[in-house]
Amino acid sequence: MRRITRIATVGLASAALALSATACGGKNSSDASSSSSASGDAKAASAAIAYDIGGRGDQSFNDAAYAGLQKAETDLKIKGAEAEPTDGEGEADKVQRLTELARKGNNPVIGVGFAYAPAIKKVAPKFPETTFGIIDDTSVTGPNIANLVFNEEQGSYLAGVAAAKVSKTGTVGFIGGVEVPLIKKFEAGFTQGVKDTNPNAKVLSAYLTQPPNFDGFSKPDLGKAAAQGQLSAGGADVVYAAAGLAGSGAIEAAHAAGKWAIGVDSDQYNQAGLSKYKDKILTSVTKDVSDSVYNLIKSVKDGKPENGEIRYGLDKDGVGLADSNPEYKKMADVIAAVEKAKADIIAKKITVKTAP
């Protein structure tokens, strides 16, 4: 399989091209790369991120990681490298990708997503002077491994509160990309938030694919079809999708139906690729993936590399609920309920479940 690595100096035009490629179902974003050669100047690239399924341009998880790399380039005056996934790739492809990034002198090397755990377990011991970061996984540990993890269930609880408050039908929907423990955390928190707010509410849950098929994170048509089913036959009037790039299809379906969508990972109201649907993006459950990437890069540059579990929750604003939509800002009762729930979680008055 072809591996794509590019120096991260692209501008907005290139990002738009990357989105166009992924939105059409393609993963090959080499057409959207900058004028820098893929081989690049190895010495100039000092930090690297290897993207998860969907790649850059997903308007969600991967783009949040890229924002952290961009910030590091600007603030810390470092150079960055990016490596894209390929369709249907296996563990050997990830091992090769991480190995090449490390060999080129990048430090840290960050795997965006739990799927990189087996590869990091193999590669990290071979490069003891390089820090390896992995987002959303704590199963792989080592002296040069930083586990960047989040309390997704807490942010999802707040989304459940908001969904229950705005729903007129009393039925809301959750769509998970792939049925894995990480995404079950999103479902658990959302469902608990809904039920704690309105015990009579109904939560429709659906998963797009089952492992080892991870298309549920990368194919918008799957998210669109699932959302259409929940909105029409199911009677839902709010849909929350934790499905990476596939979630954009759910947002599109909600917009077409004139119903509310809740975004995930990034503040999707402000994502350029979703601008035509933004008026129906009520809010988004945010994960501060950007800062986690930036903080790890800075720690390495400062000579004090982070390692072990680094957790981001509501108490550190590591997860949260976006309020960019002006319509959401007008909903005083919804905002009050969300803020109370947030305070109660931080104060440990509410314990949010991590499994349905």
Question: Could you provide a short overview of the structure?
Answer:
The protein has 356 residues and is an alpha/beta fold. The chain is built from eleven helices and 13 strands.
Question: Main sheet: which strands, in order across?
Answer: 1-3-2-4-5-6-12
Number of strands: 13
Order of helices and strands: EHEHEHEHEEHEHEHEHEEHEEHH
Which class do the helix and strand fractions yield? alpha/beta
Strand content: 15-25%
Most strands sheet: 7 strands, mixed
Q: Figure out the total of helices.
A: 11
Q: For the record, give the distance between the C-alpha atoms at the N and C termini, rounded to a whole number.
A: 37 Å
Overall geometry: globular
Structure explained in plain terms:
The protein is α/β, with parallel strands linked by helices and 356 residues long. Helices cover 38% and strands 19% of the residues. The strands form two sheets. Strands 1-3-2-4-5-6-12 form a seven-stranded mixed β-sheet, sandwiched between helices. β2, α2 and β3 form a beta-alpha-beta unit.
